[in-house]
Design goal:
The complex is a heterodimer of chains A (432) and B (173). Chain A contains 4 helices and 31 strands. Chain A is mainly β and 432 residues long. In chain A, the strands form 7 sheets. In chain A, strands 2, 3, 4, 5, 6 and 7 form a 6-stranded mixed beta sheet that branches. In chain A, strands 1-30-29-28-27 form a 5-stranded antiparallel beta sheet, with no helix packed on it. A 4-stranded antiparallel beta sheet of chain A has the order 10-9-8-31, with no helix packed on it. The N terminus of chain A is likely disordered. Chain B starts with 5 loop residues before the first helix and ends with a strand. The chains are: A mainly beta (432), B alpha+beta (173). At the A-B interface, β23 of A face α3 and β3 of B.
Chain lengths: 432, 173
């Protein structure tokens, strides 16, 4: 609780002062058939002046992005209730609205968001609650209401009150390119640059505490892995080995970092125990072993290796070193990421000279291609396993895109300028 | 004061003449030696100069060969194999490196296809393939540094076979 409060204060106020150029926008490109119709009525505002954020708009956009909900346009609302006593079900039944969300923002330097959800058909209130925090955090409070509504109506925990990490690159021809490591809300808003360099920055990833991140920076003219605490702003260089220092991945308990090093010859997977800094070698093969990611139980590591001639996904048991190949579909599979269920694995698959995001059920083995673009990479699954973010090309520009794990919903998050790449979805974050 | 006798005078005159004669004859032989030495020095310097010129000419040839070979070698998709054209480029660099004590930095790169960290490893494999070839041909490994930039620093922007073929490379710096 305390840690999270510090994190958000910090995200808002302190170290990140530079406003990101690469602000993301959202364009939904594919939704589901027959989404649930929900009216999110503009929330009442009782603070001074105009409301700082349009809370109802934020919540409506969140629910729409899931593809499972279709928010009603305000122009189609016959009434605009903000309290239960003002709700007339016939106004909503007449326009086939299934659910109705109303609320109030009680303002000040700290704000409280009160909300209530109604089932129009059954004519009853199904959820009510409130979220309190600082005024600067109003957007995050709105996302928390989205999370509550989403969970109530789908049975799945919402992942709207989360953040995303990505690299924004501005290519220049008269000067070195700029690499901006950026953190934004899951809806792309409030983008802030946390580290900027003229040398490449890549492979950003979250620690499970949602407070630390790790990434590779070439600021020393060689690759090195850094851990950066978003609360304190303190950066620390963790590796400086000869050769590759890349692909960091925090263990599920946050105490270890798996990564790729080539100090002993060819690229292999190593684990650094963060408190002691002891380095342990996990794989030992003359082929390329890279892109480690942890199974949720922390006992094995999934990685990419071309030991079979071309890149495929393998899993190594950390204790025994026993290694097994996981992918057999397609000639080329790389950069896996395993969802919290320990069963859904997403990866990059090459087929017919196109690179797609594919999902594999580790229990049954079946593989499905989720994306229809051609240069897709860096899949990162939301903490609730519903959607994944990835990087692709749109025209000549690098953009972020998202797709539901069943492929039914897709949306794009292009930056207003420059290229964006390597998204990493945060874990669940504590209450602000 | 003692009277100087005629005999003593005569003796001293003869001695002086003899001394002068001796001196004269010594001067002549020393001049000859200096001349010879000078000539030898000049010959040596000329030889040195010729050798220097020859070395310069050879260096220039080696540098020209490197200049015309270029500082970049290219690879096939997902490959780090050195083909004949690549080896010719590297041979030019190896010949020049053998004539000096310079150090060299090999920067490996990949095209944008595939995943970034795999491409980072692929760029390193390419740089190491070049390093191994140089080492086998007599360049000490201590003189060569390798670094991979993966697909992070394309030589040519854009998507398509033409751009990709220019980006799968090792730059010799």
């Amino acid at each position: 609780m305390m840690r999270s409060r510090r994190l958000f204060l910090c995200l808002l106020l302190s170290t990140f002062t530079s406003l990101a150029q690469a602000q993301l926008t959202i364009e939904i490109t594919r939704g589901r058939d027959n989404p649930t119709s929900i009216a999110v009525v503009p929330f009442a505002w009782s603070g001074w002046g105009a409301a700082p954020e349009d809370v109802a708009q934020i919540i409506g956009a969140d629910l729409e992005r899931s593809g499972q909900f279709s928010p009603v346009a305000r122009s189609d609302m016959l009434s605009l209730p903000t309290r239960a006593s003002d709700v007339f079900y016939r106004d909503w039944r007449a326009t086939n609205v299934e659910y109705l969300l109303i609320g109030r923002v009680v303002g000040g330097s700290s704000v409280t968001l009160e909300y209530e959800l109604f089932d129009v058909q059954r004519q009853q209130s199904v959820l009510q609650g409130s979220k309190a925090g600082t005024a600067q955090n109003l957007r995050m409070l709105a996302h928390r209401v989205s999370d509550a509504v989403y969970e109530k109506l789908t049975g799945v925990r919402g992942a709207y009150a989360t953040r995303i990490l990505y690299v924004a690159v501005t290519q220049r021809y008269d000067a070195p390119s700029t690499y901006q490591l950026t953190v934004a809300d899951a809806d792309g808003a409030r983008a802030e640059v946390v580290y900027e360099s003229n040398e490449p920055v890549l492979s950003p990833t979250w620690a499970p505490d949602g407070e630390r991140i790790a990434y590779v920076s070439f600021e020393t003219t060689r690759p090195a892995v850094f851990i950066h605490n978003l609360t304190t702003g303190i950066r620390e260089q963790v590796t400086n080995f000869p050769g590759l220092n890349g692909a960091p991945a925090f263990s599920p308990d946050g105490n270890s970092l798996a990564l790729t090093l080539s100090k002993d010859g060819s690229p292999d997977i190593y684990v650094i125990d963060l408190p002691s800094r002891a380095v342990r070698r996990i794989t030992r093969h003359y082929a390329i072993d890279t892109e480690p990611t942890w199974m949720p139980d922390g006992r094995s590591i999934v990685f990419t290796s071309d030991r079979g001639g071309r890149p495929q996904i393998y899993r190594v048991d950390i204790a025994s070193g026993k290694t097994e190949r996981l992918t057999f579909d397609g000639p080329w599979n790389a950069r896996a990421s395993v969802a919290a269920d320990g069963r859904t694995m997403v990866m990059v698959q090459q087929k017919d000279d196109r690179f797609h995001i594919a999902v594999q059920d580790l229990l049954r083995g079946n593989v499905e291609i989720l994306t229809s673009t051609t240069l897709d990479e860096s899949p990162s699954v939301a903490p609730n396993g519903s959607m994944l973010l990835y990087a692709t090309k749109y025209g000549d520009r690098g953009i972020l895109a998202a797709v539901s794990v069943d492929g039914g919903v897709q949306f794009r998050l292009p930056a207003r300028e420059g290229d964006v790449r390597e998204p990493s979805w945060s874990p669940y974050l504590g209450n602000p | 004061m003692k009277q100087v006798t005629v005999a003593e005078k005569a003796l001293s005159v003869i001695f002086a003449i003899l001394l002068m004669a001796g001196c004269a004859s010594t001067d002549t032989s020393e001049e000859d030696a200096a001349m010879a030495e000078k000539e030898a020095k000049e010959a040596m310097m000329a030889e040195e100069e010729a050798r220097k010129a020859e070395t310069m000419r050879k260096m220039k040839m080696l540098e020209d060969a490197v200049a015309s070979a270029g500082n970049v070698v290219y690879f096939d998709f997902d490959k780090s194999t050195l083909n004949a054209a690549t080896r010719r480029v590297l041979d030019a660099h190896i010949a020049l490196l053998k004539s000096n004590s310079d150090t060299v930095r090999l920067e490996g790169h990949a095209d944008e296809r595939g995943t970034r960290e795999y491409n980072m490893a692929l760029g390193e494999r390419r740089a190491k393939a070049v390093l191994d070839y140089m080492a086998v041909n007599g360049i000490g490994r201590g003189r060569v540094e390798t670094v991979s930039y993966g697909e992070e620093r394309p030589a040519v922007s854009g998507t398509g076979a033409a751009a990709w073929s220019k980006n799968r490379r090792v730059e010799i710096k």
